[in-house]
Design goal:
87 residues, mainly alpha
Length: 87
């Protein structure tokens, strides 16, 4: 992976982080709404960053493999945030 590829990944992460901040500012009056926003952000960012990393590495987008352990962790954390948001 070249320096430019790392810069693209870092730039996308900063953009997604700023979108999370914007979402939290909009829903800042409720802890449940913030938890739901963070859960959605976590899922979307993980899968898009994984796809972006695979494509930057030269893997066709239909052949990008998503690792099982990090995916399980992300889904569990997002699920816990969604359950907190509902209860």
């Amino acid at each position: 992976m070249t320096k430019f590829d790392k810069l693209v990944l870092f730039g996308f992460f900063l953009i997604s982080l700023s979108l999370l901040g914007w979402s939290v500012l909009i829903h800042g009056n409720s802890a449940q709404a913030v938890a739901a926003s963070i859960g959605i952000w976590l899922l979307l960012t993980f899968f898009v960053m994984t796809l972006l990393h695979g494509v930057i590495s030269g893997v066709p987008r239909t052949k990008v493999a998503i690792p099982a352990l990090p995916t399980t962790v992300v889904i569990c954390v997002s699920g816990a945030l969604f359950i907190y948001a509902v209860l």
